[in-house]
Structure of DUF6318 domain-containing protein:
Amino acid sequence: MSVSACTGGGAPPPGSSPSDSQSPAASTTPSNTPTPTAAYKPADASGRAQNVPVPVLPEAAKAETKEGAIAFAKHWYTLLNYAYQTGEFRLMDEVTDSSCRLCAKVRPGIVEWNSEGRWIAGGLVQAKGAYTNFVKTSQGSYQVTTQLEQSAGTLYRPDSSVEKSVPPSQVLADIMILRFSDGRWIAMDVDRIGA
C-alpha cells in the first residue's frame, strides 16, 4: 500500500526558493474527486479473487439479543466466504472458538487451495435464513440454526487447470452454538445437520 502526503501551508520543499512556492504553477487546487478504490474481482478461471472486501460486523450483531445472535450467525458466514477467497482466517479466528467442528473440517482444504499458486473460484455460502429461540443454556450459550446454500465451486491449480469442480449444494443447515462474552459474540461450535 502506498501512502501519499499532501503539503499545504507549511515550509517549502527542500531545494526550492520562497518564490517557487508562491508561483501559480506550484499551487494546487483541492479536488472533490474521491480517491478510487480497487474494484472487487471474484475468482474465476483467470485467477484468484482480488480486492476482496473485508466483512464488517453489522451493528445489530453487537448486542446480546435474539436479533444480535441471528445477525452474528449470518456475519460468521461472510467471514467464512472471506477465508474461501483469500485463505485468510484471522478475522474468523477472532470470533470463533478453536473447538469449532465445521472449521476443523473445512479449514485444511481452504488453506491448501489458497497456497502455492492455487485458488478457489465460487463455493461461497449464503445464509438464506436463521432461527433461534434465544434461550440461554446453563453453560451460558445460545443456539442458532442457519439455512444455507453454497454456490458451485472450482479448485484451480497454478497452471489454471481444474483439479475439481463441485456442483451447487442442496439446502444445507448448520447449528451454531454462540456465547456472548466481554461485549461480543463468539461462535463456540458450528456443525452441519445431517453430515
Remarks:
- The chain is about 20% helix and 25% strand.
- The mean pLDDT is 86.
